[in-house]
Design brief:
Blueprint (H helix, E strand, L loop, with lengths): L7 H28 L4 H10 L4 E2 L22 H15 L4 E3 L1 E2 L6 H10 L3 E2 L2 E3 L22 H21 L3 E4 L4 E2 L7 H17 L6 E5 L9 E2 L4 H11 L3 E6 L9 H10 L3 E6 L16 H16 L8 E4 L8 H20 L3 H9 L3 H13 L3 H11 L5 H8 L1 H8 L12
Parallel strand pairs: 1-2, 2-4, 3-5, 5-6, 6-8, 8-10, 10-11, 11-12
Antiparallel strand pairs: 7-9
Bound molecules: 6-deoxy-beta-L-fructofuranose (LRH) and manganese (II) ion (2 copies).
Pfam families: AP_endonuc_2 (PF01261)
InterPro entries: L-rhamnose_isomerase, L_rhamnose_iso, Xyl_isomerase-like_sf, Xyl_isomerase-like_TIM-brl
Organism: Pelagibacterium lentulum
């Protein structure tokens, strides 16, 4: 039994305030969906079983390239971070796993496991960091890591990734996500081909260290921190990498890592079709890698991504098992609130995508009825599925309204009293 940070009586008291309205809304939606031949109970089951992992680095206040404004009760270490992740899961019932970033979260694996156990949490993919220099590290990553011109620097980056696998093995993780900042800032600074060859060779060494039941996810990103060229810049390159690295290698899609207007849902469909979709970093963006709360800018795009995922799930696409993780940075909100909101947005998109009448959609597509095909998706997207999500939470003992319950519990003030205040500074995380 998990030792949660917020009393279940507090959640219960908050739920009591919302229960009557929830039952009424649930009954009304159930009736409406029945007319569409949809069983609301089946949807609650599906949504209940759904989970998205929280990034350990997301529970601290992030920064821009210009400044960081820490909030009250900033987690001091990975154990505080896990406490915060535990609260997110306790209130939403939607985030059973945490994704760690090494060396930021480096700690005794036994202690990590014990702490996660007390909070009822598990661990999703490990993330390596060769985009910044760790304290005491011999070779700098200023000019790259896995693709660096110097063999010693590349070997150090390979070693770091192997260390992440070792830690992951000890805590029950089954995947490693590799994102590198390698690239160049000026035309001529690097040779595209040589740099990519070096990267592939180094990654092959990492893959050799992968246990048989692990997967490795490579994450592409168009630019930043490199501003002229990036080694793993788009899904095409990413797909080539996954092909080169073999059957354990898959592509990770971070929603914020594409050129503006790129059709991300179509990229997702392609990667599913060719059995190389490894997972997601969900977030939202307006301009670049903004790391805004998931679904805060373009919820329709999130729905369209889930439309592809549900399509694949329902037709039993071979080898389809993507990891679902959030990757956000919070500058002006309480990270716990933002992550809870995002987890619920992801669930919402999933529930909406489950509502798509796929039989009708197929006929409209075959009849070239563009208007009705589009309306079929819109009809699902426009349905307010909140009572389904709230009912799934309530039945798990989570909160009907997680943000209200969190605020009422005063968790932030409580940890602010225990955790020393952190002063701001210049920009940080990418
Ligand atoms: C890079 C990225 C990647 C990192 C995380 C901190 O922009 O999305 O996933 O590991 O941010
Ligand atoms: Mn990411
Ligand atoms: Mn990013």
């Amino acid at each position: 039994m998990a030792e949660y940070k917020i009393g279940s009586d507090q959640i219960g008291a908050n739920n009591d305030k919302h229960a009557k309205a929830l039952y009424a809304d649930y009954a009304a939606l159930g009736e409406h969906l029945a007319r569409r031949n949809i069983d609301i109970e089946k949807l609650v089951e599906k949504v209940s079983a759904y989970g998205v992992a929280v990034p350990s680095w997301g529970v601290g206040t992030g920064g821009t390239r210009f400044a960081r404004f820490p909030g009250a009760g900033e987690p001091r270490d990975i154990f505080d971070k896990l406490d915060d992740c535990g609260v997110i899961h306790q209130l939403t019932g939607a985030t059973p796993n945490v994704s760690l970033h090494i060396p930021w979260d480096k700690a005794d694996p036994k202690a990590l496991l014990e702490k996660a156990d007390t909070l009822g949490l598990g661990f999703d993919a490990m993330n390596s960091n060769t985009f910044s220099d760790a304290e005491g590290q011999k070779h700098s990553y200023k000019f790259g890591s896995l693709s660096h011109a110097s063999a010693a620097t590349r070997a150090q980056a390979v070693e770091h990734n192997i260390e992440c696998i070792e830690i992951g093995k000890a805590i029950g993780s089954k995947a490693l996500t590799v994102w590198i900042g390698d690239g160049s800032n000026f035309p001529g600074q690097t040779n595209f081909t040589t740099q990519f060859e070096r990267y592939l060779d180094a990654m092959k060494d990492v893959v050799k260290a992968l246990p048989a039941d692990w997967r490795i996810f490579t994450e592409h990103k168009m630019y930043e921190p490199a501003f002229y060229s990036t080694v793993v810049q788009d899904w095409g390159t990413n797909y080539m990498i996954a092909q080169e690295l073999g059957p354990q290698a898959y592509c990770l899609v971070d929603l914020g890592h594409h050129a503006p207007n790129v059709n991300i849902e179509m990229i997702v469909a392609r990667l599913i079709q060719f059995k190389k979709l490894g997972g997601f970093h969900f977030n939202d963006s307006k301009y670049g890698d903004d790391d805004l709360d998931t679904g805060s800018i373009d919820p329709f795009r999130l729905f369209l991504v889930f439309n592809e995922l549900v399509d694949a799930e329902q037709r039993g696409a071979e080898g389809f098992d993507p990891a679902h993780m959030l990757d956000q940075s919070h500058n002006v909100t309480d990270p716990i609130e933002s992550l809870m909101q995002s987890a619920m947005e992801v669930q919402r998109a999933y529930a909406q995508a489950l509502l798509v009448d796929r039989g009708a959609l197929k006929s409209f597509q075959e009849d070239n009825d563009a208007l009705m095909a589009a309306q079929t998706l819109k009809k699902a997207f426009r349905t307010d599925v909140e009572p389904i999500l709230a009912m799934a939470r309530q039945r798990k003992g989570a909160a009907i309204d997680p943000i209200a319950a969190y605020r009422a519990a005063g968790y932030r003030a409580k940890v602010a009293a225990e955790r020393p205040a952190v002063t701001g500074g210049s920009g940080g995380i990418v």
